[in-house]
Amino acid sequence: MATVLSGKEVTAAINASLSERSAALLADGIRPCLAIVRLGQEPGDIAYERGAMKRAEAVGVAVRQYVLPRTASQEELLAVIREINEDTSVHGALLLRPFPVQIDDRTVRNALRAEKDMDGITDASLAGVFTNTPCGYAPCTAEACMAVLDHYGIDPAGMRTTVIGRSLVIGKPIAMMLLRRNATVTICHTRTKDMAREIRRAELVIAAAGQPKMVTADMLKDGQILIDVGVNVDEEGNLCGDADYEAAGHLDLSITPVPGGVGTVTSSVLMRHVIEAAESLR
């Protein structure tokens, strides 16, 4: 039977540390503050925002909401970002994306100062990930994968690792992080020939393709570690990951569940970035 790598356990450990650090900042007269920028009333954005606010409250981070109509112009959105950039009481920002069609994503995300980019969306922040330099912060979900490995004492050094997905949000950043930790990394994508073979030969698998249950039990083997980043809805309307969790559960491997896995850790990583940003101003 599979060993479950619970994200809730990782989150509890991170939050305990964050609460102490937040309290120390408050004693120095500094309240860590996160700005959340949302356009419109998209259900997914609202759900993510509520989850982030709940986590922020739990660890002593203030949240300032900036809500614009979905029809807002690019200049209106840029004006909000300029305000956040100039406000010294705001230590970091989270821009809820994707933006509507009238907004140019690259222009807007790069208008945010890298030191206030809490989710690694600016070109400067991503450059920091790829060059291993302290510029901005890494994407929270990619860093959450590393937090899970670290919490459970899994050292990726020397491990044959397959990353499924090549997005700038997860696939490419997590590949760079794993390379930095001396893993041997293969990135799979839609043009990969015989993806099942690449998955089966790996010791560590990061599933981040955004395709429900695409990693089936026959692609896996005993002894593997599977970090499932996917958040999808299956044909029955149930939340599921990129791996077939129920089928994989019959194998002797270690796996993160969905829900209750990497996604649970992501918001705690976000709060860690805000607190780190506040600490840097001491």
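The above is record 1. Record 2 follows with the same two-line structure.
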Amino acid sequence: MTAYRAVQGVKDILPEQSALWEHFEKIIKTTCGLFGYQRIETPIFEETGVYARGVGEGTDIVEKEMYTFKDRGDTSLTLEPEGTAGVVRAYIEHGMQMKPQPVKLFYVRTPIFRYERPQKGRLREHHQFGCEAIGESDPMLDAELISVIWSVYTRMGLTNLSIQLNSIGDKACKPGYMQKLIEYYTPLQDDLCADCKVRFTKNPLRLLDCKEERDQPKIAHAPKIAEYLCADCEEHFALLKQYLEEMHIPYTLNPLLVRGLDYYTRTVFELISEDIGGRQNAIGGGGRYDGLIELLGGKPTPAIGFGSGMERAIALLEQQKGTEIAEKQPEVYIIALNAMAKRKAAEFANTLREKDIKTLLGFGSRSLKAFMKAANASGAQWAVIIGEEEAQTNTVALRNLRAGADDDHKQVSLSVEEGLQTILRSVQQ
């Protein structure tokens, strides 16, 4: 009989890893809440046009990486390859432009699907958290959004982090820069990698986003967008840098940072870890997308957002800090030695759980010795033993599993109510 395995590029999150994921999610939710961001959840698939138009026809995501299929109604659907386009679609569809602006939204543990070569921390199905702030062009909002991702990861205890920052201009100044870029790359076309030959025609700006080693010298000597910014973009970028400095968020200017999606304008940024080798060292990034809402059918609306891969961040957390975040141990392990005792055990377990006491029940028919072995292995502080006598007299034998071997009070017989109060007092200490 076939023993099935997970397909290439996906990964199970096992119970022993869940505590770390929950810890990460709790920090995200708390931090986003402090900044006034509200949670949104969008479907894991959209009509293909949401991504084809929003992300950009010439991007690697649209051309190579999307999981696209037709449903039984012959509608082309695509599994979510990134978080922003779906949030923007929801913003437009549900009339959020009528709310006080900016509308500040975050998502967490959203599954992202991309058919690409699996790599450490980046799988064909991975998870992202992200923030979107829609309806405001103030550069202070850009600084706040960068502060959110910085705060999440510093609160997690990660070190050796830095922000890389750039401005790629807007519709007023970007076309002039694009022309200079085309002029620079025109005599170099024959020596470009296969992907960059396509980029040269479809989206020249993405030539700067190439990761191929052979093209790095060309990128290093390419014209820099900062030299072509219009006055408005220069002012916006200068104010953003001032705000980041006032907020004590360290950043490095990277004039070659462009990000890989078509919808970005003005601010682009990445959160970089010095502990991840190679060029795939970003654990999150984003930027302004002032034209995306209009592109997807809404009114012209400024916006900024970021996305961050959670698997890559968790791998980095394990690398820097180990797996010291452990799941909460149970407080009580209940042992029932006959059928009547099992009924009493089920009742007592339910009472404890109603009071938020983590409680395990011993199942099956085993010897007291075997049950005690399981109780000790569980990590619980208390073993509650209910045998025939206890079941008839409405009492429990309460054993402190953390007491010393010569402790005279290691095991005591108490009424059910006394046993409950003893456990509650120990947990509250």
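The radius of gyration is 28 Å.
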